[in-house]
Specification:
Elements (H helix, E strand, L loop, with lengths): L1 E5 L5 E6 L5 E8 L13 H8 L9 H9 L4 E6 L4 E8 L3 H14 L4 H19 L2 H13 L13 H6 L2 H11 L5 E7 L3 H11 L21 E5 L5 E8 L8 H12 L5 H9 L6 E7 L4 E9 L4 H18 L3 H18 L3 H15 L5 H9 L3 H11 L6 E6 L16
Helix pairs in contact: 1-7, 3-8, 9-12, 9-15, 10-11, 11-15, 12-14
């Protein structure tokens, strides 16, 4: 199912064949994200991602867009804290075109100064858009609070002042230092032939040379605190959380079960207690943010400003109860089946599989089969979930962020309400 080859210049190519579908998803991954940026250049990785769509030696920005639109394909990219990915999804017969366009962008972008000036304005508008999105603001506030002063805690998109100060040479220097065959992975999933993908990229990357070291993954110190940010919104946004586990930690399967039990679906404890029984929130859920050497676990809810304290107390109480009493065997069994079912549904998407190939290659250096994941999930026991809940939900490790039309006098956050 999975095949991996290394081109002569060092680029790794990983594929997963799905003969039953007609689509193909391809990605070029760079082992660099915002967590490896110097503070004075916050947002440089994200701005480079934008600029690779703005024209090459062979194609204008419009021609890049038309190439994919003309075959009904999708072309996009994302920058996260530890990697950057440029990807396309097309009908299988258009794979050569997708490879050509992606490789052209990746290797031959011209970084025209006029386009850079325009794209800096676009990113500044994107920053303003995020500032107007309470969900985005509260998540950035949470990670900055829990990992204060760290690179992982800084926003991937950067700050208005740092993005505005970046020059064409800054971007090109960052690209030269970080984008090299030794730090690049190609992934493809769908109705693809591995040998053909290798052939296409060997040709497209024939002149791609150089070496670069992958960044050392950051393991920031946990700095839990309570932060209330005043903003004139209709709802108040709550984000409470603690230390999680890394994407390389074998306990990630146990945390997935804990996550599902606490806030992973309509039958979860938080959904039932906060929404169904008390009507305090329309949306309440728990989540994991996992990186190579660390992670965070959080609980998010939106409620009326006058209900913030009650909502905080109920969430903290559910965390305390799970750590004090543990889950039931029935909850564990239900969570396992939920996780396996969600995994199976996600595997129907070639894009999801392509993304999983890249993340697994960078995070683990190998691919994990569906069967292995299911075995690991099935191996999770009640005692392991209980032990992890006791470890994570300690009072001194819990942080709280609230965004809305209130201040610190409106919210009482006492560690004694959490797990002692």
């Amino acid at each position: 199912m999975y095949r991996k080859s290394t081109l002569q210049n060092g680029v790794r190519v990983v594929t997963e064949s799905m003969p039953s579908v007609r689509s193909a998803s391809l990605g070029i991954w760079a082992d660099i994200g915002s967590a490896a940026e110097p503070p004075e250049q916050r947002g440089v990785s994200h701005l480079i991602e934008h600029m690779l769509f703005k024209g090459t030696q062979r194609r204008s920005a419009r021609e890049i867009a038309e190439a994919m639109d003309g075959v009904g394909g999708n072309l996009n990219a994302f920058t996260d804290k530890e990697s950057t990915c440029y990807y396309a999804k097309v009908i299988d017969r258009h794979v050569p075109l997708a490879v050509d366009v992606l490789a052209d962008m990746f290797l031959h972008s011209v970084f025209d100064p006029a386009e850079l000036a325009k794209e800096q304005k676009v990113v500044l508008e994107e920053i303003r858009m995020y500032d107007d999105s309470p969900d985005e603001v509260i998540h950035d506030l949470f990670i900055a609070t829990m990992w204060s002063g760290s690179n992982l805690g800084a926003p991937t998109i950067g700050y208005a002042e740092t993005v505005s100060a970046l020059t064409r040479e800054d971007l090109r220097a960052h690209l030269r230092a970080r984008y090299a065959p030794t730090t690049v992975v190609v992934t493809a999933a769908g109705n693809v032939d591995h040998d053909r993908i290798v052939e296409l990229f060997a040709d497209a990357f024939a002149r791609f040379e150089g070496k670069a070291l992958s960044p050392v993954p950051e393991r920031p110190r946990l700095t839990p605190a309570s932060r209330i940010k005043r903003k004139d919104t209709e709802q108040a946004y709550i984000l409470m959380g603690t230390q999680g586990v890394s994407s390389r930690d074998e306990r990630r399967y146990t945390l997935s079960v804990l996550d599902t039990i606490l806030g992973g679906g309509m039958s979860s404890r938080l959904f039932q207690e906060v929404r169904e029984k008390r009507g305090l929130a329309y949306s309440v859920y728990s989540f994991q943010q996992s990186y190579r050497e660390t992670g965070l676990f959080g609980i998010s809810a939106g409620t009326s400003p006058g209900s913030v304290q009650v909502c905080v107390d109920v969430i903290a109480g559910e965390m305390q109860r799970l750590a004090a009493e543990g889950p039931s065997n029935e909850e564990v069994a239900l969570a396992k089946e939920h996780i396996k079912g969600s995994l199976t549904l996600s595997l129907e998407s070639t894009s999801s599989r392509m993304m999983r190939l890249g993340r697994s290659e960078f995070n683990l250096g190998r691919q994990i089969t569906t069967e292995e994941i299911e075995r690991q999930v099935d191996a999770v026991e009640r005692e392991g979930v209980w032990m992890l809940a006791r470890e994570l939900f300690r009072a001194e490790s819990l942080g709280l962020c609230v965004l809305g039309p209130l201040d610190e006098s409106n919210v009482r956050w006492l560690p004694s309400t959490a797990v002692a």
